[in-house]
Structure formats: structure tokens, C-alpha cells
Amino acid sequence: MNTYVILLRAIGPITHKVMSMARWRDAVAAAGFEDPVTYLATGNMIASGPGSIETVSERMNGVVADLGLGPSNVAVVRRPAELRAVLEANPFPEAAAERPSQMQVFCFADRRPDFGWTADHGGPELFAVVDGHLVVDYSGRISESSRLGNLIEKRCGPGTGRNWNTLRGLVERAGAREQKDT
């Protein structure tokens, strides 16, 4: 059994009416995953199961579709070690320490998105690429960057972002599960 972190794209109050987190956990358990646990109410899950990331991604996207969500609600699956590596790289240590809610880590369905466009962005945000993930420091101006998420997805494909605190919480919980299982 492997531990996985599952991040759903485009989850919010409207989608919660279609698929509650309790319903998602139940469906994931019924699909053969062990001990699915959601973290916060924003489409974050930790679950254990067999298979590769690609296989688990297919299965998770099938569960999400069966629950009535649309094709924009993509499940992005990562192993805890991948996300831990992003945290350990910590490309913006000052922001991580002082304003972690103003940093986001974007994970994409495509494991190798094109980040070439970030060098020419020209906005106040700072970008760093860590192992196929895009880390964005909004420099304390997240409310002024409302269109950046759409630009990132347009350039990199379907994905989802989590703030530094949320990612840290997911990695801590997933890591504790892995240690318990060894």
C-alpha cells in the first residue's frame, strides 16, 4: 500500500452541494482505498492504496465523475515525498515564515508542464519551479493577483494550488501515516 495526497481542482461551496467531503471519503473507501481522510473542507485527501500515481489518478477521477462533478474537477495525485521535497526546497523562506498564506504551490495533472513563460511574467509575484510544481510568492498582494490562477492554468494545464500552510499540514499528516504503516 502507498500513501497518496489527493488534491481536487475547482472545489468550493457550489461543488460541496454536489459532493460533500463525507460523500467523497465514502466513495473513495468503496473504490478500495484504505482510511481516506479529508483535510480542511477544500478537496484535500490522504488515502492509501495500491498502484502508481497514474493508476490512482485515473481511479480518483473516476470516483469524482461518478459522484456527479464535472470534467473541470480534476484529481491531482502526489506521493507525500514529492510534496515534502517542495517544502524542503522552500524557495521563498522569508515568505514561508512571515506570510505562508500568501504563498501557493501549484500541482498539475500533467507531470511536466511548461514553465518557460514564468521568466517573462513581469508581475509582482515571484515564481520558483520545484520538481514540476510551481511555487508562487504573491509578495503580500494575493488579492491583487486574481487573474494569475487562470493564467497559470492556461499556460500549464489543469492543476490546483494550495497555500503553504495547507501543504505543510497535508505533508505532516501523510508522513505520519507512512511512518505508522512501516
Automatic annotation (TrEMBL):
Name listed for the protein in its UniProt record: DUF1697 domain-containing protein
Pfam family for this entry, one: DUF1697
InterPro entries, sorted: DUF1697 (IPR012545)
SUPFAM superfamilies (UniProt xref): SP0830-like (SSF160379)
